Amino acid sequence: MYSIATRTAGLLVPLFALRSERDWGIGEIGDLAAYCQWLGSAGHRFLQLLPIFEMPAGERSPYGALSTFAVDPIHLSLGEVEDFLEAGGEAMLPGPERAALDAARVETGIDYDRVRTVKRRALEIAFARFDLREWSTGSSRAARLRDFAAAEADWLADYALFRACQERQAGASWTEWEPALRSRAPEVLAHARQTFDRDLRFHTYVQWLASEQWTAARRAASAAGVALAGDLPFMVGRESADVWSRQEEFQLDTELGAPPDAFNAEGQRWGLPVPRWETMARGDFRWLRARSRRAAALFDAVRIDHVVGFYRIYRFPTTGAPEFVPPDEGDQLALGERLLTVALASAAGTALMGEDLGVVPDFVRASLVRLAIPGYRVLRWEDDAGVFRDPSAALGRDEWHARHVLPGDLVERGARSGGSAGAGGRAGIRGPARRGRDLHACGACGPPRWPVRSGIIPRHGPGAGCLRRARTDQRPRHGRATQLGLPLALDGARARRSRDGRPP
Length: 504
Known about the structure:
Layout: E1 10-12, H1 32-41, E2 46-48, H2 82-86, H3 95-106, H4 112-135, H5 140-151, H6 153-168, H7 179-182, H8 186-195, H9 197-223, E3 227-232, H10 241-245, E4 250-258, E5 268-275, H11 277-282, H12 286-298, E6 301-304, E7 313-317, E8 323-325, H13 329-346, E9 351-354, H14 362-370, E10 383-384, E11 387-388, H15 391-394, H16 437-440, E12 467-469, E13 488-490, H17 492-499
Parallel strand pairs: 1-2, 2-3, 3-6, 6-9
Antiparallel strand pairs: 4-5, 4-7, 7-8, 10-11, 12-13
Helix pairs in contact: 1-9, 3-4, 5-6, 6-9, 12-13
């Protein structure tokens, strides 16, 4: 079990950014093993990923997924799929798909639609081979697929049926399906399962492949001494298997969002459904428990997105002004602690962290402390009476509950006290570090081992622009060592001394 009580250095890297020479235009599950080996060799023990759950076609945000359980097939490594290789591999792709694959591999960005189209065709080829050689003969691999389907039936059955119906409806919103299918009439669902049997098996097969590859990746990460952390979105998209199968547990005539803040005077509208916690409570929060168990099965630690949403929701009704629900602080506190207690119990054995950035009342952070759920701090946002803290000095303070410092947030080390405003115009900070190639390749170690375009931090030597791990000899507050994520700092002063021939 990974312990949050251990001071840990690591990186946050979206899975889609783990590009490699062998990928199909996006970071893949199969790339995690090599990357974790590098992380371990660099002294890191923690890799935080963004959500990996399946997104709808055309969606780019993993926080509006079509399932809070199904791994996105776009991240599958087709080069490791036995059935695809035995069917002939890439040579079996039709001409247009092969051309699309070649283009995706050299693309500096990610063409999601192109990658999805190519991988879907490859998975269809793999499944056709599996269906013919394994399923129809009742092989041992067919038995493994049946066992997987039975073990994950709580979410997989509805997900596979939703995807099959969605495709038969040409991708139309489930709210536009025929009334009986939309409202999940039992006789209509039974008919659909029988009619779409092969389609259901295909989507089950794809999730089985994802499970097999993810298990191998976690094993490799563990062998490298690296814990994998996931990101649990607060809510799911309207166009999701979750909402279709649990319509009574969501308000579809209101919209989830965030209140006004320094960045948006009108607040944020996220287009996500609002949960009916009182309805879920009558079912003992089965959905929340299942999500937490699924996260625990996939990861060593889990970041709970928008943790304040468990205490209070900011919703935009169809008519009227936006509002917090529940409105009273006492009710908010009781609700949040009840929901998070359920999540903690269901994810037993997995460390939970709460993303408590943005407009968060003080009572929420105090509650997280009582629940032993560490929160976050971003160094560039921390200030004392309007004076931003020097990041290098902050690394030595003992009051940080937890923090993530992303590669884009790295700053040069300033004076520990009394520094003047730098390029960024902030008192006490010497200004932002140079970004781009200087951050990824230093003079002492040559070109990075990982492509700069992928956003991956390579191995570094003692030259200019090198990264160092944060100090780990200080104890954070609350008597618990809960410093996680990306505690990195760009030690510009040390790099300059080394470059000038002076001792660092």
